[in-house]
Each structure stands twice: as structure tokens, then as C-alpha cells.
Amino acid sequence: MFEKIFPKIHNEGYKFIVIFVFATIVLYFIHGFLGFVGLVLSIWCYYFFRDPERISIGDEDYLTSPADGVVLQVFETNGPKELGLEDRKFTKVSIFMNVFDCHVNRIPCSGKITEILYKPGKFINASLDKASEDNERNYYKLNNTFGEDIIVVQIAGLVARRIVTETSVDQDLKQGDRIGMIRFGSRADLYFENYKPLVKVDQKMIAGETLIAKR
What we know:
Shape: elongated
Number of strands: 14
Oligomer: single chain
Strand content: 25-35%
Order of helices and strands: HHHEEEEEHEEEEEEEEE
């Protein structure tokens, strides 16, 4: 119960929480109501940076969700051209994270990170299709235990201004391990082959736990 009320915080969050709390104190001395607003925003900031433990299925026949949020789309498309995969067909699942979702992203299956590619870009609404190509984003290319390529893309949103990476090339990861986070509203795209999607548009996702596809 204690961990649900006071969840673990991601390291990226501490400096923001301090800033919000300091601003709240200043606002309180200006006007009580402004101080109350600051308090609400400080509580929101605390929960935005929550980093709860998740338990993955531990079965390589499944892919788990890389992000908390809601499924925007599920369809077949070419792979990301930035990774030289534009001539291959992948199933793509896009997940939108609003400002109330946990923004810590996780790897959908066990394997080795073979490439990480950062692309600067715009900060349009992450729920729009063109965000996948126009916004600031970070690509993770993972070689799974079957020797296949799985791609996770972190995409910054309208409010987000920084993508935080916690992994490196050649790093071995287990299903559900953290790969990084995006500060404030954003999106995650997942590309895969040889798996059948198990999710549908508007379905709620829990990173590291919701089964997103099956072989």
C-alpha cells in the first residue's frame, strides 16, 4: 500500500520535484490560492516521474508493451528508413502516453541492443501520425533470441523536450528491462515481424506487462 501511495521515483524526476516545490513555496507567499495550485502541480510532478516495478511474462514467444498508455494504431508498414529497414514489412503498434501515464519505457523481449539512433525533430502532438517522422525521437534496434529485429522508437510529444536513454549498444537486456524515459506527454512505436498482434486501438497498455503480440 505504501508503495502505491509513494511510488519509487525515476532519477530524472528529483530536480523537477525540487523546482516545483520551491515554486510552490514562493507562490504560497504571494497568495494562498497560488500556493494550492503549486501544491497540486508538485504532486502531479511527483507521480509523473514514478518508476514502479513491473513483472514481465518471461516468455520469448510474446512481446510485452514498451510503454504505458493507449494504443493509437496497429497496422503493417515498412520499417524505419533511418535504420535502413524501409524495404522490409513490419507490424507497427503505436502507444500514446499522456501526462498522467508513467513515462518509463521498457524492452518488449530479451535480446541485445544492436543500434541506438537519435534523431532531432519537432514537438508536434504525439498522437498525430506524422509525429513518427517529424518529432524528436530515439530508435532502439534489438536482436531477439530468435535472431530477429525488434524496433522500439521513443517519440517526444507536444510538451516533451528530452528523451532519456538508459541503455547502450551491445547491451544484453531481459524482457521488461528499462530502456529510458521521455519527459512529459509522448509516444512509443513498436515494430516487429513474425508475431501476431494481440491488441487493438484504444486498448490500455502497461509497460513490461501487457502482452502486445504472440508468435
